């Protein structure tokens, strides 16, 4: 870390291997596109912006180990772009003790949006807003027997609580709630339990490979409920993991604009940047989120002097955060998978 000119250094623990690797790779691809663009233009105040990145496989114990390394380096300005609720939740105390900002984690968990978490600042909307969007849509379409399959950890339980709350506002309870293992496709027992509840709609809160296994098991049993999930699933990975016929009609909430709609200024800028860096750019929701979060960080650094402190950076990020009142912006859309992949 003795480079000259001295870079702005941020640290990131994320899944680069394992069933959730697609999330880490896509999120970092968008981040890297934005950083590559600013660095090629001379950086900020003549200094490049760099990411120290370590794989955690979406396992909290590895996230803790990685973060312990990051906290020992005074040059690290912040923990940027962690992926997941259980992983981010696991390092809250360590980051707070080290006075390290946690910036734009890829999670919408309510447990990570509490007023006392002063060193944590979000870019994305909350899972509670995504849950409301799903439940309101299903009920408006006449679905009332709504089952929930949730990852049996901090992430799944957080969204489960939000879905229960959304259903209560309509005077409903889940038809069933079934836990799913993290980073696993061993879900036959869970699928059987879901089938027995005879739902007309099913919300799955997990990662794409696990959801794909749930859906495949249900279809083999002859069960075909309306399927819904939230943005953390990774829409493109879900489409790739499922048989083409099984993916049709699945609803997925999104917290960024449609990545192929160049009428949106953010999307146009994102596509232009990726196209300038690759002959075959790969657009998707997750990399767009990473790109926009990195742009937000870059703009905050530009607004500060050449030697920003962690506290000054955190203050500027809070001032410019798109998240309103630390509860999430209002930008939650709902898209449905078709019979073929989207194209730019």
What would you note in describing this structure?
- With 344 residues, the protein is of the alpha/beta class.
- It has 2 domains: 8-125 and 259-320, Response regulator (Rossmann fold, 3-Layer(aba) Sandwich); 127-254, Rossmann fold.
- Helices cover 43% and strands 15% of the residues.
- It contains 13 helices and 11 strands.
- It has helices at residues 21-40, 60-71, 85-90, 92-97, 127-140, 154-168, 188-196, 208-220, 235-241, 244-247, 265-277, 285-303, 310-320, and strands spanning 8-14, 49-55, 76-80, 102-103, 120-121, 146-151, 177-180, 201-205, 226-229, 251-254, 333-336.
- A 6-stranded mixed β-sheet has the order 7-6-8-9-10-11, sandwiched between helices. It has a 5-stranded parallel β-sheet with strand order 2-1-3-4-5, with helices on both faces.
- Helix 7 packs across helix 8, helix 8 (208-220) crosses helix 9 and helix 12 (285-303) crosses helix 13.
- The protein is globular.
- Residues 324-329 have low confidence and may be disordered.
Oligomer: single chain
The CATH architecture of the largest domain can be given as 3-Layer(aba) Sandwich
Helix content bin: 40-55%
CATH class of the largest domain: Alpha Beta
Number of domains: 2
* Strand ordering within the main sheet: 7-6-8-9-10-11
Mean pLDDT: 93
Q: Number of helical runs?
A: 13
Instruction: Please provide the count of β strands.
Output: 11
Q: What shape does the CA trace take? A: globular
The name CATH uses for the topology of the largest domain is Rossmann fold
Quick take:
The protein has 344 residues and is an alpha/beta fold. The chain has helices at 21-40, 60-71, 85-90, 92-97, 127-140, 154-168, 188-196, 208-220, 235-241, 244-247, 265-277, 285-303, 310-320, and strands at 8-14, 49-55, 76-80, 102-103, 120-121, 146-151, 177-180, 201-205, 226-229, 251-254, 333-336. The strands form 2 sheets. A 6-stranded mixed sheet has the order 7-6-8-9-10-11, with helices on both faces. It has a 5-stranded parallel sheet with strand order 2-1-3-4-5, sandwiched between helices.
């Amino acid at each position: 870390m003795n480079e000259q000119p001295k870079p702005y250094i941020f640290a990131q623990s994320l899944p680069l291997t394992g069933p959730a690797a697609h999330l880490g790779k896509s999120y970092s691809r968008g981040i890297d596109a934005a950083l590559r663009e600013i660095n090629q233009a001379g950086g900020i105040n003549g200094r490049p912006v760099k990411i120290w990145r370590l794989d955690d496989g979406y396992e909290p114990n590895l996230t803790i180990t990685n973060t312990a390394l990051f906290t020992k380096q005074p040059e690290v300005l912040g923990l940027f772009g962690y992926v997941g609720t259980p992983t981010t939740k696991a390092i809250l105390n360590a980051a707070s003790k080290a006075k390290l900002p946690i910036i734009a984690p890829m999670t919408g968990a309510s447990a990570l949006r509490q007023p006392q978490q002063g060193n944590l600042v979000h870019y994305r909307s909350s899972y509670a807003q995504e849950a409301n969007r799903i439940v309101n849509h299903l009920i408006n379409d006449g679905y009332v027997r709504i089952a929930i399959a949730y990852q049996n950890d901090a992430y799944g339980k957080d969204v489960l609580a939000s879905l229960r709350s959304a259903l209560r506002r309509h005077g409903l309870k889940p038809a069933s709630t079934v836990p799913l293992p993290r980073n696993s496709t061993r879900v036959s027992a869970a699928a059987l339990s879901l089938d027995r509840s005879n739902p007309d709609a099913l919300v799955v809160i997990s990662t794409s490979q696990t959801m794909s296994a749930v859906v495949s098991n249900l279809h083999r049993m002859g069960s075909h409920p309306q399927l819904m999930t939230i943005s953390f699933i990774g829409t493109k990975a879900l489409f790739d993991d499922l048989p083409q016929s099984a993916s049709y009609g699945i609803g997925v909430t999104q917290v960024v604009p449609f990545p192929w709609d160049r009428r949106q200024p953010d999307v146009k800028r994102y596509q232009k940047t990726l196209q300038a860096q690759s002959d075959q750019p790969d657009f998707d929701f997750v990399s767009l989120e990473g790109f926009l979060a990195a742009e937000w960080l870059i703009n905050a650094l530009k607004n500060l002097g050449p030697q920003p402190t962690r506290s000054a950076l955190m203050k500027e990020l809070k001032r410019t955060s798109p998240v309103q009142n630390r509860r999430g912006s209002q930008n939650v859309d709902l898209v449905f998978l078709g019979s073929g992949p989207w194209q730019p």
